[in-house]
Amino acid sequence: MSDIFKMKKIYHQFESIKDALPYIHSLSTPSKMEVPSYSTSAFNCKMGGKLHEIKGSVCEHCYARKGHYNIPVVKTAHEIRLKRILHEPLWVDAMIYILLKKRINKKPLDKFRWHDSGDIQSIGHLKKIAEVASMTPNIKHWLPTKEVNTVKAFMKENTLPNNLIIRLSAFYVNGEPAIIPDTVSSVVITKDRLGIATGFDCPIYNDSNHGKSCGNCEACYDKDMERVNYVQH
Q1: Among 221, 213, 227, which residue's Cα sits nearest to residue 168?
Q2: Consecutive H or E run containing 100
Q3: Interacting residues of 135 by C-beta distance below 8 A, sequence separation 6+
Q4: Does residue 193 lie within any of the structural domains?
Q5: Which residues neighbour 205 within 8 Å (Cβ) at sequence distance 6 or greater?
Q6: Span 158-186, pLDDT tens digits
Q7: Considering the domain boundaries, does residue 209 fall inside one?
Q8: By C-alpha distance, which of 168, 180, 181 is closest to 220?
Q9: pLDDT of residue 106
Q10: pLDDT (0 to 100) of residue 211
């Protein structure tokens, strides 16, 4: 079919971020990051739920199953966000609108992290995230995930937007990550592996002068940074 007959998708236009928020519920605000995220419950992680039962896995002592993440208002937000992702027809439209309109210190967003807790649930879920990324090309999207099979299935029939960085997380502490073309990786390492393990060590753990937040580090959003290491905590 000639391109002239192809219909370009028209996305719903909202009046304001306040108008769009009910369709996604809310964004989350990770403490170590200067940019927002979109979290769901770690108790809904598919692979993570299995790994939680395995000694030596990165999910054995999952930080997102305790502390702040168990506060009722946070748990409720996680539940609503997951329902919105799976069942709200305008979720993609609302996410696109909000990310394009969102300002941090009066500046447009240039980075966004998916799932500071939780993980993708299906190919359809990943397709929605990819669509949001595609329609917000000036934002670097970082998606850490352990759902290797879902990513493999998605990649068989879809192409990732250049600004969506999927970082496959190794299943075990000091382990080796899966390798899928056009994706990168991350590994949780023990402190004694700093400076020894292959890859780039997160400066929060490796640089005493860096501070406890991401600051100006963008390693996790960089496709050229093939492996990033985080210290077990």
Answers
A1: 227
A2: helix 91-101
A3: 11, 96
A4: no
A5: 191, 194, 230, 231, 233
A6: 999 999 999 999 999 999 999 999 999 99
A7: no
A8: 168
A9: 93
A10: 78
pLDDT in tens, 133-159: 999 999 999 999 999 999 999 999 999
SS3 222: coil
Residue 132: other Cβ atoms inside 10 A: 24
For residue 24, what are the contacts with CB-CB under 8 A and spacing of at least 6? Answer: 38, 81, 84, 88, 91, 94, 95, 98
Rounded to whole angstroms, how far apart are CA atoms 127 and 134?
Answer: 10
State the pLDDT at residue 8. 74
Domain assignment present for 83: yes
Residues 1, 5: Cα–Cα separation, whole Å: 7
8 Å CB contact between 151 and 166: yes
Which residue is associated with the tokens 């990033």?
A: 228
Task: Tell whether the model's pLDDT for residue 42 goes beyond 90.
Answer: yes
Residue 162 CB partners (closer than 8 Å, separation 6+): 137
**Amino acid making up residue 117:** S
Domain count, the chain: 1
180 domain residue, yes or no = no
Amino acid identity of residue 54, one-letter, is: I
Range of the domain at 77: 28-173
